[in-house]
What we know:
Elements: E1 7-10, H1 16-24, H2 28-35, H3 43-51, E2 55-62, E3 65-73, E4 78-82, H4 91-105, E5 110-115, H5 120-128, E6 132-136, E7 139-145
Antiparallel strand pairs: 1-2, 2-3, 3-4, 5-7, 6-7
This protein binds coenzyme A (COA).
Coenzyme A (COA) binds near residues 87, 90, 91, 92 and 121.
Amino acid sequence: MLSLSFTIREARPTDWHQIYELYNSLPLEDLYMRFFCLHRFSEEEAKRLVTLNDHVTIVVEVAGRIIGEGSLYNTGEFSLVVAPDFRGYGIGTEIVKTLIEKAKQLKMKKIFFYVLRDNIPMIRIGKKLGFKFIEEEGELMGYLEL
Ligand SMILES: CC(C)(COP(=O)(O)OP(=O)(O)OC[C@H]1O[C@@H](n2cnc3c(N)ncnc32)[C@H](O)[C@@H]1OP(=O)(O)O)[C@@H](O)C(=O)NCCC(=O)NCCS
């Protein structure tokens, strides 16, 4: 795997604009993978992501620029995205590992994500980290007992 220096930290309210820019730089199909619906990401959604307390959001920075984001909701569901130019460096894997640790700290019993069958990178991440998969209405749900 290629190597790249990056840092992962919890999102701060002031990050909303960079998160907004990250999402608006993505092709629509990536937004679909992240949110399971086709829509552009609004400024209000970016602000909610860094302020509402029904989830934990982490961001990944490379040279001060936010290039990845992952959110874990109180339900145990999580989702993530890495900017296309920064994929294949192991960042997605590190985001999921960090969310697993956050879930353990929060004493969650199980975490899960939904993924389309053709999303090979996300399925590989899940398998590598021990998630099991079940099919639900044409999508896959990956889950991990903690
Ligand atoms: C899924 C996603 C977060 C992965 O990010 P990433 O930083 O590239 O992930 P990693 O570098 O950790 O790679 C994950 C695995 O996919 C593999 N991979 C990466 N790109 C691939 C490609 N185009 N085709 C096949 N495999 C690929 C990597 O080799 C790695 O597998 P390995 O560890 O067995 O070698 C990223 O593709 C993305 O943002 N996609 C759009 C949004 C999305 O699908 N989110 C998930 C919804 S839950």
